[in-house]
Amino acid sequence: MLKGRNAIVTGSTSGIGKGIAEALASAGANVMLNGFGDAAEIERQRAALAGSATVEVAYHPADMSRPADIRDMIESAQKTFGGVDILVNNAGIQHVAPIEEFPDDRWDAVIAINLSSAFHAIKAALPGMRARKWGRIINIASAHGLVASAEKSAYVSAKHGIIGLTKTVALETAGSGITSVAICPGWVLTPLVQKQIDAKAAAGNLSAAEAKMELLGEKQPSKEFTTPEQIGQTVLFLCSSAADQITGSAISLDGGWVAQ
Q1: Residue 1 located in a structural domain
Q2: Residue 108 vs residues 28, 58, 65, 158: alpha-carbon distances, Å
Q3: Do residue 69 and residue 109 come from a single domain?
Q4: Domain range for 220
């Protein structure tokens, strides 16, 4: 369904971004990967995805805290594929601490990577989308874009900001063939969340399974993790013609988290 379309997925060498990239490639889109990790493993992942989906898959090592890197990534995708039709802003980091103890540099890093990077990528990609009269901007927010949790001031602020940015872009692109949507997952078992599970297990002398259930039980009524594959399929729906009029929305995939 996406043959001939070209996508960038930031933070796509693992976790949610990897699941989204795989879904887009399986639907026929050329994909530019982005993220940190072992160079050999990233190349193995890139080649495997290109081979399994028979699409063009590239990689750009942009540091998402650096606007110049982000602009270069967009330009590279335009040169490699001929354009950027689908931009998925997924890259993110986390730091947990009370506000009084929250390091200034960690605040700056979380805001830069989780929020400002999306602004810079959208700004660079929009002119090409406007020229082609079609585009999909999909921002991976969080349940924390809609509700807060203690000790996550930077992350919650960034994810609330992403939803505001999504709405603003939707208004500025209304009627142009471009849509802007935020996806708000609840707990997804990614390396980022696994670190929180490990910390909870260590602090409470719990088994890994007990720590997982305690984490889920705090917020997610379904007591099941959202999966990268489910998020990937949601992205495919948002890229379909059925979603032409879905713009400015925040779509929850959170097992009932924000319904409480």
Answers
A1: no
A2: 37, 29, 9, 10
A3: yes
A4: 189-225
Structural domains in the chain (count):
2
What pLDDT does 176 receive? Answer: 98
Q: Which of 59, 81, 107, 155 is catalytic?
A: 155
59 is a catalytic site residue: no
Cβ neighbours, 10 Å, residue 19? 23
Q: With 90 as the cut, is the pLDDT of residue 142 above it? A: yes
pLDDT in tens, 208-229: 899 999 989 989 999 999 999 9
* Three-state SS sequence of the chain: CCCCCEEEECCCCCHHHHHHHHHHHHCCCEEEEECCCCHHHHHHHHHHHHHHHCCCEEEECCCCCCHHHHHHHHHHHHHHHCCCCEEEECCCCCCCCCHHHCCHHHHHHHHHHHHHHHHHHHHHHHHHHHHHCCEEEEEECCHHHCCCCCCCHHHHHHHHHHHHHHHHHHHHHCCCCEEEEEEEECCECCHHHHHHHHHHHHHHCCCHHHHHHHHHHHHCCCCCCECHHHHHHHHHHHCCHHHCCCCCCEEEECCCHHHC
Average pLDDT, the chain: 96
- Kindly state the tokens that stand for 50: 């290109």
pLDDT for the residue 88 = 98
**Mean pLDDT to the nearest integer, 79-89:** 98
Element (H, E) at 252: strand 250-253
Query: For residue 55, what is the domain's CATH number?
Result: 3.40.50.720
Same domain, 87 and 157: yes
